[in-house]
Amino acid sequence: MGIQREVQRIKERREEIERIAEHACTHLRDSSVCALMKDHLEHWNWRLHCSYVVSELCKPTLAKRERHNQEVIGNLHRVCIDALIDTVDAFLKLQNLTFFARTSWAAVHRSLGSALLLGILGEPTRNERVRLMIGQLIAVMSNLEYADASEIPAPVTRAVEALQQLNNNEREEGFQGDSPHAQMQRILWGMDLRMPTEGPDDF
């Protein structure tokens, strides 16, 4: 798909999301009008998943380097990064309200994946808010209430270890030919962050 067509597709999908949001209940769009616990839970759950969908739409542009489309690509990079930040923030807000957020694989996977991408892109070194937010996520995911540490899902353990390195700017360069998304997938699904490898992702 050409870059112009891809940008147009992203624009159209974002507009669809915005139209859906316009017809959503007020408390889903504005946390200040949440009156009940149910409202708060629905608001941050909605925010988490909407932000993640936007980040997924824009994620392919993270690997784009077309010189003649630098402004357009740069704007989409910013939209993607902001959506990744909002995804992590929404998860942290949600888990403050209910422990069940930490038992939802969809919520955990989306927040960890978003945090890993932010780390891989170097956002913690440029944005103190992101660094602190990822630190909070590391703390939350390091204190999951399992009877045995061996019960913690392996992707969570790998992601937390990688996030600690990324957030402290200790990451050694690896997978240099990979896109940020491919690096994130390798971390989650069992590939050593510091050991480049060949072949398809291991799912």
Number of helices: 9
- Percent of residues in helices comes to 55-70%
Beta strand %? under 5%
Mean of all residue-level pLDDT scores: 85
**What is the domain total for the residues?**
1
The global form is globular
Number of beta-strand segments:
0
**Structural class, from secondary structure content?**
mainly alpha
Main sheet specs: none
The span between the termini is 26 Å
Which blocks of ≥5 consecutive residues have pLDDT under 50? 193-203
Secondary-structure element pattern, one letter each: HHHHHHHHH
Structure description:
There is one protein chain. By secondary structure, this protein is mainly alpha-helical. The chain has one domain. It is 65% helix and 0% strand. It is built from 9 helices and no strands. It has helices at 3-22, 26-29, 37-58, 70-97, 105-120, 123-126, 128-142, 154-167, 180-188. Helix 1 (3-22) runs antiparallel to helix 3 and helix 7 (128-142) packs antiparallel against helix 8. Residues 193-203 have low confidence and may be disordered.
SSE diagram, text form:
Layout (H helix, E strand, L loop, with lengths): L2 H20 L3 H4 L7 H22 L11 H28 L7 H16 L2 H4 L1 H15 L11 H14 L12 H9 L15
Quick overview of this protein structure:
The protein has 9 helices and no strands. It is mainly alpha-helical.
Features:
single chain, 203 residues, disordered C terminus
